[in-house]
Design a protein that fits this description.
Elements lengths: L1 H51 L8 E7 L4 E4 L14 E6 L3 E11 L2 E7 L5 H46 L2 H8 L6 H51 L4 H32 L8 E4 H19 L2 E6 L4 E4 L1 H18 L5 E7 L3 E6 L32 H11 L2 E5 L7 E6 L6
Parallel strand pairs: 7-9
Antiparallel strand pairs: 1-2, 1-5, 3-4, 4-5, 6-8, 9-10, 10-12, 11-12
Helix pairs in contact: 1-2, 2-4, 3-4, 4-5, 5-8, 6-7, 7-8
GO molecular function: phosphorelay sensor kinase activity
Pfam families: HATPase_c (PF02518)
Organism: Tsuneonella suprasediminis
């Protein structure tokens, strides 16, 4: 709009200047004709008549009829300007102290020269009106564009929000609608491609899970059959204590293998469903954690541990209750397993939710603070004969990640202190 106004302003100025030059030329030609037909006296009379008329457009004319030396004969211009009449030179000359006029000089007879000058048209009011029109038009134009942009961006935000909601819900019907838009445009095409990618990923994940479960079933079944045979052998072997001990040890190894296999499947399943809220419901963490702590209280008393818990009321979150319970039990198992004799175990639950499980065991070196969450990793504290596959903390972290939580170790003077809390923005 600004560029268009500038072009219009310059065009108006040039048009008015051209009109003034044309008026001077027409006026000069008319006076030459008058001199040719009526002579010098008639020319002087006509110049006087024209000076007496006040033009309505404000473009006042000025004249000078002079002799060969430039002496004034008629007109209102007092002296001859620096314009050569022999070549009909034109240019801008001063009229008084403040006015400039466009003039043209010419010889109309030997020893007689004529100068015609016109003041330029008053362009100020016209240019001001044009500027006002452009200012108002520009304001209306910008307002219309702003309203259109606001409406368009609002519609785009609404559509993007709908697409995001469909992706977050991972609902099959919603994803199907994204892949089959009524009037596809760029956003619909992107959403459709993303929905197709999600569906393919879910199909691959489902196929991988089915394959893993099938493999696990094929391995678990013969192991359980072998365990059954060992039980029968224990009943039939008589009273040989050595053989009974070996058979019992073999049964323990089988159970350990089955537990390891199931833990690996749980970790893979949790990682595959990270960010997937399908099937999640509100969970009363206060009630769930209190119930788990009450179940562990007897074991703590038998082991000689000082077991205490402090649970804030009405702490809830959206999640899978069974999996969230696995986080608590795995952390408690870890605390019971590696605590010192007569040590303390503390469980705290605060709004957030923030779950803290601490013990008075040997603690975890700084170099191992992240490695303890790796699968099959067991630190030096586990070398003292403690059983385990090294999958408990890995499973707890996988479940936490699926629920938008993070598990980390808090540095302390004694023991280990695990904290489960919502993922921070930096972590996300």
């Amino acid at each position: 709009m600004l560029g268009l106004w500038w072009v219009t302003d310059q065009t108006i100025r040039e048009t008015l200047a051209t009109s003034t030059r044309n008026n001077v030329d027409v006026d000069l030609a008319g006076l030459i004709d008058i001199h040719a037909s009526g002579g010098r006296s008639e020319l002087e009379r006509r110049i006087a008549d024209r000076l007496a008329v006040v033009p309505v457009d404000g473009s006042r004319p000025h004249y000078l009829l002079a002799d060969a030396k430039g002496g004034a004969i008629a007109g209102d211009i007092q002296s001859w300007p620096a314009l050569d009449p022999a070549i009909s030179e034109s240019g801008t000359i001063p009229i008084g102290d403040r006015t400039q006029a466009y003039a043209r000089a010419t010889l109309i007879a030997p020893g007689l020269r004529l100068l015609v000058a016109h003041e330029p048209l008053d362009e100020g009011p016209l240019l001001a009106r044009v500027a006002t029109v452009f200012l108002l038009g520009g304001a209306i134009f910008v307002a219309c564009i702003a309203l259109f942009a606001q409406a368009a961006s609002g519609r785009i935000r609404q559509r993007v929000s709908q697409v995001s909601s469909a992706f977050r819900a991972s609902d099959d019907d919603a994803l199907k609608r994204l892949t089959m838009p009524d009037r596809p445009d760029e956003i619909d095409r992107i959403a459709s491609q993303a929905a197709d990618a999600i569906k393919r990923a879910r199909q691959l994940s489902e196929a991988n899970r089915e394959t893993s479960e099938q493999i696990a079933h094929e391995i678990r079944t013969p192991l359980m059959h072998l365990d059954t045979r060992l039980v029968k052998a224990l009943k039939q072997q008589g009273s040989d204590p050595t053989t009974a001990a070996h058979l019992a040890e073999a049964r323990g190894e089988i159970r350990r293998l089955v537990g390891t296999l199931e833990a690996l499947l749980d970790i893979a399943s949790s990682k595959a469903r990270t960010g997937d809220s399908q099937g999640m419901k509100p969970v009363d963490l206060s009630t769930m954690v209190s119930g788990i702590c009450e179940l562990y209280a007897d074991s703590a008393e038998e082991a000689g541990y000082d077991f205490q818990w402090q649970i804030a009321p009405d702490v809830t979150m959206i999640g899978d209750a069974a999996q969230l319970g696995r986080i608590v039990t795995n952390l408690l198992d870890n605390a019971f397993k590696y605590n010192r004799d007569n040590g303390a175990i503390r469980v705290e639950l605060a709004p957030g939710p923030v779950l803290t499980v601490s013990d008075d065991g040997p603690g975890i070196p700084d170099a191992d603070r992240e490695r303890v969450f790796d699968r099959f990793y067991r630190g030096k504290a586990a070398s003292g004969g403690q059983s385990g596959s090294g999958l408990g903390l890995a499973l707890a972290r996988a479940i936490a990640a699926r629920h938008g939580l993070q598990i980390h170790l808090v540095p302390g003077t004694i023991g280990a202190r695990f904290v489960v809390e919502p993922e921070s923005e930096d972590a996300v």
